[in-house]
Amino acid sequence: MCGKKAKLPIAAFPSSAELVPEPLGLVLIISSWNFPFGLSLEPLIGAIAAGNVVILKPSEQAPTSSSVLAKTISKYLDNKAIKVIEGDNSVGDKLLQQKWDKIFFTGSTKVAKIVMAAAAKHLTPVTLELGGKCPAVVDSLSGSWDTNIAMKRILSGKFGACAGQACIGIDYILVDKTYANELVKLIKLAIPKTFGENPKESHSIARIINRTHFLRLKNLLDEPMVKSSVVHGGLTDEDNLFIEPTVLLDPPVQAAIMTEEVFGPLLPIITLDKIEDSIEFINARPKTLTIYAFTKDEALKKKIISRTSSGSVVFNDSIIQYAADTLPFGGVGQSGFGRYHGKFSFDTFSHEKAVVRRSFLTDIWFRYPPWNHKSLQLFRTAYRYDYLSVVLITLGLKKA
User: Fold this and answer.
1) Cβ(54)–Cβ(27) under 8 Å?
2) Strand ranges (DSSP E) for the chain?
3) What is the crossing angle of helices 109-120 and 89-96, to 10°?
4) Cys-Cys with 27: which of 89, 102, 235, 353 at CB 3.0–4.6 Å?
5) DSSP letter at 329?
6) Other CB atoms closer than 10 Å to residue 368's CB: what's the count?
7) Single pTM value for the model
8) How do residues 348-361 score in pLDDT, each as one tens digit?
């Protein structure tokens, strides 16, 4: 496949150069449980398109989806190029002990550190798709249309995406304290419109993946100072792994619910003296996968873009950046590194090899020793792309 053309210095004239993508080789993809098909197949498509051989390890926490992937891929795709290996953590550990040409991991920061440590033994390049606490900065909105649309997008970005069990879901809200009560009122009105008067009976909100994660979320909620901040919801049903969409107003910022990624249907709202303080609040915490902001204030938008760092920024909507395959998807800092989707997936699983072609037709004498003052001056002039001076110095019409 032909690649990008490159410019070479005059000393290499006549010649040409290009970047030619080549496959990395043997790739390990470890996917997550919350979107088991998308988070397996998206990187798999990029890896295969780039010409690699792939081992896919789906999450054991979604066993039915893992089984479907294993059976379907083995039946319909080339088993010499793609294999699915199922199993628990011990299987994952054995896979990580092998030598790979690339590891692509989606999951938690805790497991990502294990993946990186294993990869370091073989100097294997790694892409980490993690998460973090994605904030939503909510400015005071005017007009019923804008407000209604914003509420729908906030609720779907928090509770609709796998009941908050999504790395790009809204983790918490930042709001001006003068608008906080109005925002809480709007959210409380919008929840039953979205999920019904009894969300437990709704088919539009997921259950928690397993008992371990359920108890983790319940423990976040049961901290005394956190529990007292609940302004809506709070119902939990361990037998059915259900947690009601829950809104909290100003839980302690030192509490676990504000220091750990929530990854569930609990929505803390933090009030600020002014909405511009959201930038300082965000910057005081680890870099996140996405920053959401609901505002019409162009000055605030510019400040969020220029003064914060995150994998992406989305204004006046949520989650949609994941669906745009013309945009790279990935984090920065503790929210991960590397990117994929669309052509970016191909690039992630490729090495761009530099290829230079040269003929014997002409040669540049001053590139070879022995050197003198004139030849060194010609060198310096050539690397400044001052071709006219090269000609003049060579003809003796300009002093070296």
Assistant:
1) yes
2) 4-6, 15-23, 26-30, 53-57, 82-84, 102-106, 126-129, 135-138, 172-176, 230-232, 236-237, 242-243, 246-249, 266-272, 288-294, 310-315, 336-337, 350-358
3) 30
4) 102
5) B
6) 9
7) 0.91
8) 999 999 999 988 88
